[in-house]
Amino acid sequence: MRVLVTEDDEDLRLAVEASLRGSGFAVDVAKDLPDADEALSVNAYDCVVLDRMLPAGDSLDYVGERRRDGWEVPVLFLTARDTIADRIAGLALADDYLVKPFAVAELIA
After folding, report:
1. What tens digit of pLDDT does each residue of 20-41 get?
2. What is the pLDDT of residues 73-101, one digit of tens each?
3. Are 94 and 59 in contact (CB under 8 A)?
């Protein structure tokens, strides 16, 4: 399974990448939405892991725009935004919503 991980915190991005690779996933990484957009334009992914709050904006808006264009790739939001309203908004567009801090086993699942 090929996964794109988009996270602006370098330490967390590296940890998530290592954890997923260690579990047998093929992983590409992006530090922001423009990098993610570029990767998505040239590669097919089985899943995209997105931090909600990135320097270029809220990835919830990004996913919403892509969904309106017919994009169906499964998305997991990985975020510190933990209110019920945030979770409901995220789950309306994504397949899962994981709040930081999280257990690696939960991410892998």
Report:
1. 999 999 999 999 999 999 999 9
2. 999 999 999 999 999 999 999 999 999 99
3. no
CATH of 2-108, one of 3.40.50.1700, 3.40.47.10, 3.40.50.2300, 3.30.530.20: 3.40.50.2300
Buried b (16+ CB within 10 A) or exposed e, 34-59: ebbeebbeeeebebbbbbbebeeebb
Q: State the pairing for strand pair 47-51/2-6.
A: parallel
Q: Tens digits of per-residue pLDDT, 4-18?
A: 999 999 999 999 999
